[in-house]
């Protein structure tokens, strides 16, 4: 066959896409093995039946044809109202583009921010798709390292230096953070905003976990002085409303940028099915009560995990202030995150994500998703700690 394009063949820069353990675990399950999966952020609660009823009613009512590409006006209005209420930044439908999930919004944001070959910065640890998404948009991903001793919070000084050295066009941040659970405090975001303005960067803010705050307060950098005109916010109903499979999200930002991105949507996704948008609109009209109900199990499991992990000294839990994950420091075992995850899956049939999947700053860590019932999660964590203790003694 003809050769594949360099764009496709180089998406992972010749390395792993970070999903190796996940694929291995799924293969073992397909062979009949009993595997405890703690890999992906898939809420164990399914989409609320009332939302599915709204989806079904819309589809059966005939909203199955092409929907308006930027998103149906009522949904864009609801998203804008939500952003205004939650961030304090006045937002209208002209500031919102409905997308097929947050992943599509990430791609659109980088297409808007970066010309081919330009540098797009991303803060480590980063979600595993970030580098490939940036390459797909034709830009060059450059990671900004962070230090576990600082809670993986970005330091403005090296950030400014890297931005200047690379001539970066954009910076991607994620708070609450996947994988670390860090919620960026106001001082950190102020430092990031200062760098973005000084270096004339687009700031792309992935805020899909904004309803999962266990400690502290979520602050959107779009709300900081001088940032509304240079910030693109990625949002989604996947985590806040347990609608992962519905693929419904948005990008919010300056009206001029969003108007231009309608052309991108016209030539790529051609919008989102109308019945899914109607279901999303219904979900948003249920208000914060539904969001809090969906977030509650993750808060409870985070507290449960802190009790279990606090009773031993080998596996260290990083501060988990938000999102549905635990980030575990397993360096006392002498293993890398990849080595630990491989050995844990082989011997215990427990699947976790290696820290190295999220960038070099996360080497020696593993990520655990809080997506199992409490009793099964507790059992898995106790087995992880016992496994780690055995490895630490042998190290």
Automatic annotation (TrEMBL):
PROSITE patterns for this protein: AA_TRANSFER_CLASS_1
Coiled coil: none
Keywords noted in UniProt: Aminotransferase, Pyridoxal phosphate, Pyruvate, Transferase
Keyword Transferase: yes
GO biological process, one term: amino acid metabolic process
Swiss-Prot/TrEMBL catalytic activity: L-aspartate + 2-oxoglutarate = oxaloacetate + L-glutamate
A single MF term (Gene Ontology): L-aspartate:2-oxoglutarate aminotransferase activity
Cofactors demanded by this protein: pyridoxal 5'-phosphate
Xref: InterPro entries: Aminotransferase_I/II_large, AspAT/PAT-like, NHTrfase_class1_PyrdxlP-BS, PyrdxlP-dep_Trfase, PyrdxlP-dep_Trfase_major
Keyword Transferase: yes
Domain Aminotransferase class I/classII large: 35-384
EC number: 2.6.1.-
Name of the protein described by the UniProt record: Aminotransferase
